[in-house]
Amino acid sequence: MVVLHILSIVVGLVVLWAVLLDALETVVLPRRVNRVFRLTAWYYRATWGPWAGMTKRIKSQGRRESVLGYFGPLSLIFLLALWAAGLILGFALVQYGTGAHLSLSNAHPGFGLLLYHSGETFFTLGYGDIVPDSGWSRFLAVLEAGMGFAFLGIVIGYLPTIYSAFSRREIEISLLDARAGSPPTAAELLRRYGQYSPGNENGLDRIFHDWERWSAEVLESHLSYPVLGFFRSQHNNQSWLAALTTILDATALVIAGVDGIPSEQAKITFAMARHAAVDLSQVADATYDPTFPDRLPAADLARLRSALTDKGLRLCEGMEAEEKLAALRAMYEPYVLALARKLLIALPPWQHPERKPDNWQVAPWDEAIAARNTTSASNYSSEDHF
Question: What is the signed CA dihedral for 112, 115, 119, 120, rounded to 10 degrees?
Fold first, then answer.
């Protein structure tokens, strides 16, 4: 019996240490942890795979994105519940090992009742139906009650931090809609720069500068809070990975050579965005696949050149320019493709095969308003004719 009590204390302490260390690394420690086994990492591997497999059966893209959008918030709630359950179990095991508890019937409770006692202590219910009857058991009860208050503080502070980081991430993604289309593409970003700011060399630099900072913020927030990678954007055709890929594509084109556009800021932005893509692919445990399809075959590159030329932007031609672009693409495309497959996020093309309206141009009442305006114009014309 003594051996069982000692084993219970040891196992309980191990459980408490594992949960507290994992919570500390996930919530408090602002850096990536490379340890082989982590409770949070195991939890997301065990839950994301079945969830992603379930959503692959959904044929409607909109419905599939909606279901995928639930995973991030729900996984966060259940992770907090897992931590709470682990702490309750750990304290119950240690309390069982120390013994010396009395129930209302003056009997010594078994492990089941001690598990219940641990739960009511952790959540500070304090029914008093089970009473610790030794110095060690009283100390553990006070310690667990204090840890319950600390856990509540974590919940109160952790969730707003997550959603604040999510909000900052999404603001720039929404701004990209009018600058690079929906979903965004590098060709559309460069085309609109040429269309709206001809000869303005600082216009695209300002955009790249903003996205250099955005990439750094995404890297910092997603390293500190990896669950943000599972949070989907508000629109089905937008995502943080699509935005990051668009900026990498656009800066790669400018670095490879676009007449009239300086490449200094593009190089800095490319470096920061590539850093984010590489590190976040490791955080997401994405794997490299040499069979990934080519995102920009020769025929598509030729169409891209032609489309940009029509807007007064000429890509540098020749073997050297093409090799430079290919080398730049090889630095980030394997990582964003691996992330896209891991997180089930669609990557944007380099350019859309046909013109697509932006999100701001599409509204549910547009057809009805257009029909009413057409009727009003027709009536006005008739009266004016008479």
Answer: 60
CA 133 – CA 243 distance, rounded (Å):
60
**Separation CA 222–CA 214 (nearest Å):** 12
Between CA 185 and CA 19, with CA 286 as vertex, the angle to 5 degrees is: 125
Cis peptide leading into residue 109 (ω within 30°): no
Q: pTM for the whole thing?
A: 0.85
CB 215 within 8 A of CB 272: yes
pLDDT digits (tens, 9 = 90+) for 355-378: 778 877 777 777 777 777 765 555
pLDDT at 383: 43
Instruction: Copy the structure tokens of residue 12.
Output: 């309980």
Q: Which residues contact 202 (CB under 8 A, 6 or more apart)?
A: none
CB of 230 closer than 8 Å to CB of 75: yes
Which residue, 82, 4, 99, is CA-closest to 117? 99
Beta carbons of 254 and 325 less than 8 angstroms apart: no
- Give the start-to-end residue ranges of the domains of the chain: 2-156, 163-361
Residue 155 and residue 221 in contact, taking contact as beta carbons nearer than 8 Å: no
DSSP characters over 108-144: PP-HHHHHHHHHHHHTT----SEEE-SHHHHHHHHHH
What are φ and ψ of residue 311, in 5° steps?
A: -100, 15
Residue 283: is it exposed, middle or buried by C-beta count within 10 angstroms (0-12/13-18/19+)? middle
pLDDT tens, position by position, 82-129 = 999 999 999 999 988 887 676 666 667 778 888 888 898 898 887 777
Are 213 and 151 spatial neighbours (Cβ–Cβ below 8 Å)?
no
Q: pLDDT tens digit string along 271-324?
A: 999 999 999 999 888 998 888 889 999 899 999 988 888 888 888 888 888 899
Q: Is 275 exposed, middle or buried (0-12, 13-18, 19+ CB in 10 A)?
A: middle
∠ Cα 267 326 190 (to 5°):
55
Q: Which residue has the tokens 């095991």?
A: 93
